[in-house]
Design a protein that fits this description.
single chain, 598 residues, alpha/beta, ABC transporter transmembrane region fold, Rossmann fold, 2 domains, 20 helices, binds adenosine-5'-diphosphate, binds magnesium ion
């Protein structure tokens, strides 16, 4: 329950709405009590009048009396009708305040969660799977909303109704009240257990449902592989099995739900019988009137739902507390890498790795071991090495997606951990190895990092030209306004890489990092891009990570990385003279290129 305390700030924010809601509930309940009393009075009045009517001798006077009885009935009906309308109006206002409040809070919580998601580090995303994160922002939040909406509304409803109805009932007859209320606590407890079972089962249904959608989603995106390997049948079998599980648990849920209403009705019936039996005896002894019995029957029906909802609300609150605990657990997790400095500085681009050692959080292997190098402003450095040698890790450390384990990285002579993180990241144009494009237009994808600057179309086009993707874009149906991804065009790996390059160079950052971003581009295009980049890279420090030597021969410095250590360094010519790994790789790739061209 403690988890829910953290939500009080939202209640405080919407306190006026909540108070108004409470006022509306109270008024609507008061209006719903009056017609019941009217019905009781109508019963008694009509009963008395009929006795008088029968005692009268037939004639004009009796006919006139008959008319007054009908007038009375019409009057009571109008009273009941009028109050029903008033009750309805205020019920509408109640929902419009309290349920609206819960939706507003839901909106606030979702925003808070999303903002926090974006602050958390890459290592957080490695630990938690996407489905789980999605659940917190959708499922868990909607459960918490149930606490703010229905749970609060029904609780206020119950309190107000109890206070009003029970005091009215006791005024009529205390003993009858006691008897009539007797079954209600049982009802509440039963409902609590039944809703518990229903919730458990719904959760299982939900779980199976999300498994099925994950499966279907994967089948759609992997449809080409499935067809190519002729695995349609095995997928069908698997899907059917999942579906059978889903059907069975759904049917169980239906069974429990089906038992729920009859049970409720049975218990309400029990209360009604007690009312009539005990009330009848009291009426015979003259302690209460017939009208009182009618009144009580209605009171019992009025109380049953709120009392039943008490059990339901309890389980709602429990679920909300569990969900909020999950949300808090992550809202309270502090990002290890955060901005500690807001100094606005200009970065000129000197980069220095000083004896950097690195192990990924939660693992044991040392990925980088004693890596040191210096890049002067405007210089270019190439990193060559086998897959898994730690090249991409170097890029992640420079952009502070992770922090070093030992040693330090300096930019312009300052430890990166002390530089304003926003400035640092803004000053680095980073093309990650795994290209990611958003389902937006190509223009928006290229201008992605410059959102707050509003770049012109001409600037976007220039970036595209330098990345050698301009001609390709012109071939697309809507050119720069062509949508990428799901509901748009599918790009080839090389096109994606080049759009990603355009995205990095458009802001003219003082540092550029290209992580194997030419791997899916043919050698001819590669040559063109490199010659364009030479102009772009002028006066900018550049790190080019590659496994292809042809992309790096022009670089000022080249280091060869192997199992996290720098094993060779120099420039193209000096490395060739060393006749080591670099020279060997160069010979091999030269041969490959020749054989492709032949
Ligand atoms: N997020 C991560 N968590 C744990 N280990 C990782 C992670 N990313 C990469 N590694 C490991 O670090 C090593 C170096 O990876 P990486 O820098 O991507 O190499 P390269 O870019 O040279 O191919 C590999 O052995 C890889 O398995
Ligand atoms: Mg890599």
């Amino acid at each position: 329950m403690k988890a829910l305390f953290s939500l009080n700030k939202y209640l405080w924010k919407y306190r006026w709405r909540l108070l108004l809601g409470i006022a509306f509930v109270t008024v609507s309940k008061i209006f719903s009590i009056y017609p019941v009393q009217a019905i009781g009075k109508a019963f008694d009045a009509v009963g008395d009048s009929i006795k008088i009517y029968k005692a009268m001798s037939p004639g004009l006077e009796q006919d006139a009396f008959y008319n007054t009885i009908t007038d009375q009935i019409v009057m009571y009906s109008l009273i009941v009708f009028g109050f029903a309308i008033l009750t309805g109006i205020f019920l509408f206002f109640t929902r419009m305040t309290i349920i609206v409040m819960s939706r507003l809070i839901e909106y606030d919580i979702k925003n808070d969660i999303f903002i926090h998601y974006q602050v958390l580090n890459t290592s957080f995303y490695k630990k938690n799977n996407t489905g789980d994160l999605m659940n917190r922002i959708s499922e868990d939040v909607s459960r918490v909303r149930m606490y703010f909406g229905p749970a609060i509304m029904y609780t206020i409803n119950l309190v107000v109704l109890f206070a009003l109805v029970i005091s009215t009932m006791i005024e009529v007859n205390a003993m009858l009240t006691l008897y009539v209320l007797l079954p209600l606590p049982f009802l509440s407890v039963i409902i609590y257990y039944v809703s518990h079972i229903i919730n458990k089962k719904s959760e299982r249904v939900q779980f199976h449902l999300s498994q099925i959608s994950t499966f279907v989603q994967e089948a759609f995106s992997g449809i080409r592989v499935i067809k190519a390997y002729n695995q349609q049948h095995s997928k069908e079998v698997f899907f059917e099995k999942e579906l059978v599980d889903y059907r069975n648990i759904s049917l169980e849920l239906v069974k429990t739900n089906a038992l729920f209403m009859p049970m409720m009705t049975l218990l309400i019936g029990l209360s009604t019988i007690i009312t009539i039996y005990v009330g009848g005896k009291l009426a015979i002894s003259g302690e209460i009137t017939m009208g009182n019995i009618a009144e009580f029957v209605i009171y019992v029906n009025m109380l049953t739902w709120p009392v039943a909802s008490l059990g339901w609300v309890t389980s709602l609150v429990q679920r909300a507390a569990a969900s909020q605990e999950r949300i808090n657990e992550f809202l309270h997790s502090v990002p290890e890498i955060s901005n500690t400095n807001n100094d606005e500085i200009e970065i000129s681009g000197k980069i220095e790795f000083k004896d950097v050692q690195f192990t990924y959080p939660g693992t044991n292997a040392t990925i980088l071991d004693g890596v040191s190098f210096t890049i002067q402003p405007g210089e270019s450095l190439a990193i060559i090495g086998r897959t898994g040698s730690g090249k991409s890790t170097i890029a992640s450390l420079l952009t502070r997606l992770y922090d070093v384990t030992n040693g330090c990285i300096e930019v312009d002579g300052i430890d990166v951990r002390k530089i304003n993180l926003n400035i640092l990241r803004k000053s680095i144009g980073y093309v990650p190895q795994e290209v990611f494009l958003f389902s937006e237009t190509i223009a928006n994808n290229i201008a992605f990092g410059q959102r707050d600057l509003k770049v012109s179309r001409a600037v976007i086009e220039e970036a595209a030209k330098n990345a050698e993707v301009y001609e390709n874009i012109l071939d697309f149906p809507n050119r720069f306004d062509t949508k990428v991804g799901e509901r748009g065009i599918t790009l080839s790996g090389g096109q994606k890489q080049r759009i990603s390059i355009a995205r990095a160079i458009i802001g003219k950052p003082s540092i550029l990092v290209f992580d194997d971003c030419l791997s899916a581009v043919d050698t001819e295009t590669e040559k063109k891009i490199i010659s364009n980049l030479k102009t772009v890279m002028e006066n900018r420090s550049t790190i080019i990570i590659s496994h292809r030597i042809s992309s790096v021969t022009h670089c000022d410095k080249i280091i060869v990385l192997d199992e996290g250590k720098i094993v060779e360094s120099g420039n193209h010519d000096s490395l060739l003279k060393q006749s080591g790994i670099y020279a060997e790789l160069y010979q091999k790739q030269l041969l490959e290129e020749v054989s492709i061209e032949v």
